[in-house]
Each structure stands twice: as structure tokens, then as C-alpha cells.
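Weekly sync, protein design subgroup
Attendees: M.S., D.O., the rotation student, P.L. (late)

Item 1: inverse folding check
M.S. brought a backbone from last month's batch and wanted to see whether the design step gives back something sensible before we order anything. D.O. pointed out we never logged the input encoding, so this time it goes straight into the notes. C-alpha cells as presented (180 positions):
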């Protein structure tokens, strides 16, 4: 089995469990693309949890996720196609975890600020944003950390793990920013 398939089938689930994904959680996968993390997380949260896979689908990647969800009869993933706006229609403090994997470098400062503020509103106390650091040259990590801190989040977990990035697996840094 190739490294990518092995990671998707087993290692990815181990990584998500280590970062804190648990049964019964409600998770937003913001900028989910083809839904690799959504599908893996859906196995962990089980029938009592829910994954909200959100993307603007500019590159048509949601089609892959829609087909996979239908084919495998995955009942705990809700696919939400947006027109690019950051306007979540979820109740306050209704989400346990928000994935921001390989997405922040695609947003401008205003969008990042809005996403972090919305995340604070949505997350339950003790909930967290899990941020997979990619495209280091295109973002200022210190600035992102300051924005998180200024919006009521603190970093108390950092991981070095292999993560999915487009069509390959790469060693990456993951930060969990917890709602204070």
C-alpha cells in the first residue's frame, strides 16, 4: 500500500486522535476541499458526532467528497458549499473543534480576522482550532498567533506529525488554539 493510502486508511486517524478528536464531537472542517480530513474525522466522532465540511468549491473538489459520502453511505458529514463568505449559521458554542488545515494562506487579513472571531463564537469552552501549518513563506505565523491570542485563544498544544497536503504526506506542525 502506498504511503498516501496507508496514511488515509490508518495513520491519519491516529494523528487526529492524538490532536484531540474524540467520539461525539461536532467538527467544522473549514476549507475541506476533497474532504480527506472530514472523512477520517467522521470515523472517529461516530454516529453521535457530526462533521461540517465547508468549502467554496472553487476548484470543484467537493464533488469528490459528495461522491465518497454517497458511495460509502457516510451519514455524519454535512457538506456545506459557500460562495466564499465566512458566515456560519450555527448556534453559539455548538462546535468542539474547527480544522483550519492548509487554508489560511488563501485568505486575506480581513477574512482571517473574521474566521477567528466566528470560531470564538462557535466553539464551546475548551474547544479548539486545529491549525496545520503550510505555505510558511506566504503567511506570518507570529501574526496568526497574535490574532488568535487577541481573540481569546491560547496555544497549549503543538504537534509534529505527518499530514495530508494536496496529494502527498509531509511532516508538518499542527497547533491547537484553545478557547479560553
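Designed sequence read out in the meeting:
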Amino acid at each position: 500500500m502506498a504511503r498516501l493510502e496507508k496514511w488515509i486508511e490508518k495513520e491519519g486517524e491516529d494523528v487526529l486522535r492524538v490532536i484531540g478528536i474524540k467520539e461525539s464531537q461536532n467538527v467544522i472542517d473549514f476549507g475541506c476541499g476533497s474532504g480527506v480530513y472530514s472523512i477520517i474525522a467522521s470515523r472517529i466522532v461516530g454516529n453521535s458526532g457530526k462533521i461540517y465540511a465547508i468549502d467554496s468549491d472553487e476548484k470543484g473538489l467537493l464533488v469528490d467528497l459528495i461522491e465518497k459520502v454517497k458511495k460509502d453511505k457516510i451519514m455524519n458529514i454535512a457538506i456545506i458549499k459557500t460562495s466564499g463568505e465566512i458566515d456560519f449559521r450555527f448556534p453559539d458554542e455548538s462546535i468542539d473543534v474547527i480544522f483550519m488545515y492548509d487554508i489560511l494562506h488563501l485568505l486575506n487579513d480581513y477574512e482571517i480576522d473574521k474566521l477567528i472571531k466566528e470560531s470564538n463564537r462557535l466553539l464551546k469552552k475548551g474547544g479548539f482550532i486545529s491549525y496545520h501549518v503550510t505555505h510558511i513563506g506566504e503567511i506570518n505565523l507570529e501574526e496568526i498567533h497574535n490574532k488568535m491570542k487577541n481573540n481569546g485563544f491560547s496555544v497549549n498544544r503543538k504537534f509534529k506529525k505527518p499530514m495530508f497536503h494536496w496529494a502527498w504526506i509531509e511532516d508538518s506542525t499542527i497547533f491547537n488554539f484553545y478557547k479560553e
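Discussion: The mean pLDDT is 92. DSSP finds five helices and seven strands in the chain.
Action: P.L. to compare against the previous round before Friday.
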